[in-house]
Design a protein that fits this description.
mainly alpha, single chain, 39 residues
Length: 39
């Protein structure tokens, strides 16, 4: 049981970090499109 409790938070944090990173990259890409489109 303790083994499961040790693995779950790590998997959760990794997933959270990946989602945040992808979200920021996607937002930066859209921002870049608007910046280039404005010029």
């Amino acid at each position: 049981m303790s083994d499961l409790e040790e693995k779950f938070p790590r998997a959760l944090w990794v997933r959270l970090i990946v989602y945040i990173a992808v979200g920021h990259l996607f937002a930066a890409f859209i921002w870049l499109l608007f910046e280039v489109g404005a010029k």
